[in-house]
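chain below, 335 aa
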Amino acid sequence: MTDPICVEVTRGDLVESRHRVRACVVDAEGRVVEAWGDIAAHVYPRSAIKPLQAIPLVETGAADAFGLEPRHVALACASHLGEKIHTETVSHWLGHIGCVADDLECGGHLPRADKAMIDLIRSGAAVSGIYNNCSGKHTGFLTTCRHLGEDTKGYITAVHPAQQRLAALLAELGGETLDNSERGLDGCGIPVLGMPLSALARAMARMAAPETLTDTRGRAVERIIAAMTAHPEMVRGTGGFDTVAMRAGHGRFATKTGAEGVHIAIVPEKRLGVAVKVEDGNNRATPVIMTALLDRLGVLDDAARAALSGFATTAVENVVGTHVGDIRLAAGALD
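prediction:
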């Protein structure tokens, strides 16, 4: 075990804050390629595993049965910003499968995109589950339940087949028995299971190497990654790291953020999975780390580096827009 990676936050001449980050790179056989910090310590993977959670939507045939397009599959993997492209797609998708906004059990919150939030408030419309950043994932759950003839009520509970499938998938791809792992509830209400950070990276590495999976699951994973990289605007939204990174990567990798400083990358050409956890849970450090790790793995060309330069070192601005500091890797942080 090496030391965690250090991300610094400067203001003027002073390093004002530091974030300790655990990270690991794992191959499809489960070997740890590189690691920083205690990667055996358990984390809740949060929304970083949405690409994995979308597997049943495709694997069961539900996506094809309802004629879903790649943009819908990408939205099933999303922590979106609540822009029109997201909320209108969710609304139409729900209608297509015979559901309504009230069938979403994720709860509602204001859009994360400023313009979308202002527009919604001005409209006076109710804040429904459609605006939840997880609404695409939840619509995917409902779609799978509809296809399999399962009751959609209570689909977020741990005893429902929808969540049983996800728990089994996480254990299988992560290579860890999770029967006695920590339990909690995610922000959108579904169960979360504690797992080693290395197991999270391994699950992503298995997705990066679909030949290690059954034929049906392997094809599903290939479709999910292709959908995410073809429609990165659905996975996050305007200006978001995952959207910018996947657009710059041109299909070479997929990335997905999660709450509390968790972030993953799936790198098919290297058959590698990456998992990151900021120990204090601050997500402002993850784009810095993920940009550095993708570059370290050799999947960023000059154009991609330029596109991600604002994430590699993120400017800190005050209220009037003055550049007052930076969020950056500490010197020698990846040594």
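The domain at 5-329 is CATH 3.40.710 (Beta-lactamase). The radius of gyration is 19 Å.
thats it, cya
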